[in-house]
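Q: MADF domain-containing protein, please. Structure only.
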Amino acid sequence: MNKNKTIQFLDCYEMHPCLWNPREQDYRNNNVRLAALKSIIQEMRLSITVEELKLKIKNIRTTYNREASKVAKSKKSGAVEDDVYRPQLIWFSVADRFLKPVIEGRNSKDNMVSLIIIY
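A: Structure for MADF domain-containing protein:
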């Protein structure tokens, strides 16, 4: 996918929160998720299978998580605003607007579990 197509894909992916938001009622409903994946393929006129689309989503999410982690680490290091890591991916801000709250919510739960285990 080229950069513009990736941005278009992310906009389409965002419209299907059952695929990325674990707080969504249909997140665990495989039939709804499958329909959403097929809808993305149709809307974007992709000539790929559902399994290939799942792999593309996984790759994008992995890259997004890696970049978001670099941003978070640079902020925790006490870097001044000008020195905070800024991803060079043209599509990062598009993914960040809807994935960041989901990722942050998940990480804060992980931290709570760690605290409980320590004590």
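A: Brief note, in case it's useful. The longest helix spans residues 50-76.
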